Please model this.
Amino acid sequence: MRRTWLVAATVVPMLVVSACSSRNAVNKPHNNAGGGKGGYGYKIAVVTHGSAGDAFWTIVQNGVKQAGKDMGDTVSYESDGDPTKQAALIDAATNAKPDGLVVSMANPPALKAAIERAEKAGIPVITMNSGEAESKAYGALSHIGQDEVVAGRAVGTQLKADGVHHAICVIQEAGNVGLEQRCGGVKDTLGGTVTNIQVDNNNLPAAQTLIKTKLQSDTSVDAVVTLGAQVAQVAEGAISQANSKAELATFDLNGDVAKAIEQGKIAFAVDQQPYLQGYLAVVMLTLYKSNLNVLGGGQPVLTGPTLITKENAAAVAQLAAGGTR
Amino acid sequence: MTAATARVDERVAHVGALRRLLLRPELGALVGVLVIFTFFAAQSDVFRSWAGAANWLDVSSALGLMAVPVALLMIGGHFDLSAGVQTATAGLATGIMTTYWGLQLYASWVVSLALMLTIGFINGFLVTRTGLPSFIITLGMFLGLQGLNLGVTKQVTNQVQVSNIDLVPGYHALNNILASTVTIGGAKFPIAIIWWIGFTALGSWVLLKTRFGNWIFATGGDPNASKNVGVRTGRTTIGLFMMVSFMAWFVGNTQFIRFTSIQAQSGIGQELYYIAAAVIGGCLLTGGFGSVIGASLGALIFGMTEVGIVNVGWNSDWFKLFVGVMLLLAVLANQFTRRLAEQSRR
Amino acid sequence: MTNVDVREIVEPPKADPPMLEIRDVTKMFGSVISLSDISTTVQAGQVTCVLGDNGAGKSTLIKILAGVHQPDGGQLLVDGRPARFSTPRDALDAGIATVYQDLAIVPLMAIWRNFFLGSEPTKGWGPFKRFDAGLAKKVTRKEMGDMGIDIRDPDQPVGTLSGGERQSVAIARAVHFGARLLILDEPTSALGVKQAGVVLKYIVQARDRGLGVIFITHNPHHAYPVGDRFLLLKRGRSLGDFAKSEISLAELTRLMAGGAELEALAHELERGTGDVGEVGRELLQDTETLS
Model:
């Protein structure tokens, strides 16, 4: 019996190693663009409302990390979708006495007190992504990015131009404020009907079937709007399986979405450039601390929305696959 | 045994065939299935069409495949809260090993199977050795794997998903076995449904017709008594946890092959549905009683409800409320049927 | 007139070694002495009763015989040869079957499943090995029938049977699986008068089939009618190991009741008023009739 184990213990690893081949490694592991010799040495804390496994916020985080490397700053990134918990994270960051604080405000009133405490402690605050309306009022230096509603409206406008009358908006995380705002924005500008359907991002196979069955039950639907790149992929399958002519548009990018746009399977994607939001927020604070520079002239610094269509999809595809777009 | 020597116990009344049917644990679930089907079929012609059936059977099969070993485990007296995230671990492991580290697809399949069986073994080992409630131990495993799934994926891929498995050599053969479709009545039925039916039949056979099945009932019903008569309760428990992990491997990888990508946070929250399906199917939370066929019927109820709500066009914000109400109704129906059946004995 | 020893006529000289001999067995749990120098024997076709109140060490003794614990001193001899039971399986293999107080029965499972639990008959081979349910149901009905119970529906969960019937399932199971020695742990303790009588009948039936029986109880009125040998335990020590001819029911009861201690208690209670005094006076009467 022991001999069998010994034999297995030697033979199996050899078999495993021999089965390795570069032909299988179709994904390239993340390559860090070389760290810049910025040497600023500031401590920047970033506290957002993204949830842990969210693809959009992961790209923001990538931007934050790279900026930290390029600037030579120490960056920390914390997030929680629950505003109460996010406020607690802001307080925790304040207590660590950073040189600058970046906050995304999906629920501005809930965060107001914590932000003001940070400012009173002498920490400059920049808001990003959501909350541009309250940013100045709360004493933030600048705001980078734009509310999700803006992106939603851009989608609605484009769909209207494409002749869409009934769109379904697929919400993959119940109760997520940002997602609800996106659908709300679409509704504002479409001028037709927008029906929200709930699916679970943690169960995408079921999500595909639900989108498919919706298309089969309601043939008046002529567009499907997804709010995340992962959901877009399954929606594509759902549309073709349901033999539907519905147009597919999505928010956010990844490598597969870019490819699908090139192939005409997805009409367009709205890119809010989350990498840029994260990266520039860190840069803005660094330059403020070192040189008292303020970007924006009192206005929010918008990073989008840009529409990725067949024309420009090919160019961004590789970047999207690397997690930077 | 002659009539003269055998004292007939007047209290052991003759139990008719119909009453015997009522006593089966699956009955409540079957009633639930019929009620839900009738309800939605009456309101939506898409629901009752072949295409509609393909949809709700598809959703049910993913839940149902996992409900089978989870039901066996519950009958054996334990819970596995890590069952949902294990499906993600399995798929992510295969994906990372192949598309990032270059391991051949079939080889990484085997390695990922070994990994999942080890996780199952750890769960079972900790439960039997420490004597702590399986709820707590698997909760720890659930949180640990959740963190591991996200952390490792982000570290290796810089994203929260692993994709492009369809580009590796060997993909198409696996795709045909695990992810193809069967056309019936003009609609495409995913082959996972066949796998689901097959595993249900296998699970039921093991439970009801084998010695190991007897040990499952015994270990769940009274572990001390079982140990005293020589049942290997430790081995049975560890075996059951490994069965759950095996199915997590199967489901995680088949979904990965079928959809060509897998999310790091996939499966979170599903473990409660597996348990709910098993309970609807007649499994007692305290163990020792239940049915695999019932658990699959419970999964069918969930699938029909989820798809049916979309078919009839109800506001999907209320979805979870509907599911909760359906679950309670199904469990009550189950309770009621059992009480009725037991009273017939008095 | 020759001097004939009456006892030699009543008890023929033993030629064979006893089926089971317990010799000077001692068991400690940490610093607590659970059993100290306990000895008795069991013959085939005879019943040895182990009597004692709660805390006397009866459970520990059974667990040693069943292979759950190992003795710290003394030895067990099966058919005259020293034996060591490291696991319950060893005891079972030696033909010693234990029917525990909680019966080692799973209430939710059917009678036939319980009957064969741990020793399931199989049909077929390899991965297709099946639990032979047909055979199991047939045997269960037969064995229960031999005990005098007609189980029309072996699928009935055991939990729906009465206490006495459950005992009979456990006993029938032990007998069927080739037990040579049956150890019954307080089978009558939780039963009503009539049910207890029925169980005593099963014990006699088992004895008459040639099994040795160890019958554990704290009730001398149950033990005396069926017992051939009596071992009395008190707080881990043996008060004596007697053949039936050596002791009367009254003496047995007096020894068990603690004789002198009980008299003292009775005097104390007798001085009390109302019901307490009544109890004390009755107790005093009882102890006086026993001594």
